[in-house]
Amino acid sequence: MKLSRSTLSVALLAALVAPAAHAEIALDVIGNSEVSFEGLVQADYNYFDSDFTDLNVGGDQLDGRDSDNELRRAELVLKGKGPGNFEWVVGYDAKADKWLDVNAKYKIGGNSNHFFQLGQFKQPNSLEELSSTKNNDFISKAMVTNTYGVARRLGAQYGIGDNNWSLTTSFFTRELTEHPAPTPHGPGWGVRGTFAPINESGNIVHLGLSYVNYDSFQDTVRIRTRPQADLAGTRLVDSGNMTNVDRQATIGGEAMWITGPFKLQSEYMQSTVERYDNGNPRQSKDFDSSSWYVSGLWNITGETWGYKGGVPTTGLPDEPASGMWQLGARFDSIDLDDGVIIPAANPTAAAAVDGVLGGQMDSWTVGVNWYWRSNFKFMLNYVMVDSSRFYARTPATGLVDPADQGQLVNRKVDDNPNVIEARVQFYW
Known about the structure:
Blueprint: H1 5-17, E1 25-30, E2 33-49, E3 67-81, E4 86-93, E5 98-107, E6 115-122, H2 127-130, H3 143-148, E7 152-161, E8 165-172, E9 188-200, E10 203-215, E11 224-225, E12 237-238, E13 245-259, E14 262-275, E15 287-299, E16 305-308, E17 311-314, E18 324-342, E19 351-372, E20 376-394, E21 398-400, E22 408-409, E23 411-415, E24 418-427
Antiparallel strand pairs: 1-2, 2-3, 2-24, 3-4, 4-5, 5-6, 6-7, 7-8, 8-9, 9-10, 10-13, 11-12, 13-14, 14-15, 15-18, 16-17, 18-19, 19-20, 19-22, 20-21, 20-23, 20-24
């Protein structure tokens, strides 16, 4: 669904004349449950300065233009508190046509840090993924989050902790919304532990570890990521379809430091795709890959962050009329190379690969955010990408993207595009 100029104008006009209300809209009390309504609307624009590969060709973007715009999210959420210690939520994204959080939670002893949850919810394996989408520091989430984060899945979850520590374990299966293979929707389990040795107003140190292990869907896994641009149709690094897959296991580490108006945050994940023997040694080796980022954010206007349930929380601007201004920078890196090149006997022929050479990519993102009043956010990012990947080259067809196991390669291509990104957001 593309966002036309007229649709964008109407959406912005509706947002500007809407009444300001930071909290959710209270609807009614039904069956001793206080029902409220929340929403999130995001519209994105990307301008692509492509290098080797046209970033706007592939997937749903087939026009090859230098820019693209889209209604990114249109989330509608009903929430309920009660009866008693129960809470429930039903969320739906009208843009993506998929279910969001759909679950019920029971707070044991009335303690929000000690609970049992059943339904569809985000899995416990990523600080950025578990943080609120409307308060993301950058327009595109980090590569490690987009690549290895296990988001909403059906399952059961138990959590225990207090203001300084938490331990959460989850057993899950597929999503409510069906997706085609090879998306990672097999059953599995996960666990995440956090510890905040310092947790004071404007002074927070957070540490965390996570682990998820799940079955592959139809024995196939494909690991790839966009160049830090959500509207790009091209992935510059791509493992290709790995078949004969048993399970995928990902371990992650996270750290965050908040001091006054500054926030420093980092995550690292290493993932192993476990494969079974199908008689072909090149297609039976386990595949290891990794990704990480480090980011810094400065609230120019002086606000700080809160901390709840092992994730940061973003408050309102101190001066709603002028808003809260943020400056940020992030460095990302991902490595999908786990193989060696076997030289060809004939110098004019392509070499073979033992394993997988999906490529490597680094990126810098710098950005500015403006939270205006209680319901609006405007974001502007500039992304600089540095990637490299092996391709095959034949006299007849030129460069060929292998994107499969046992591929032939004889040329490493550097691809270093830049992207300008903008987002308009309205939430209540």
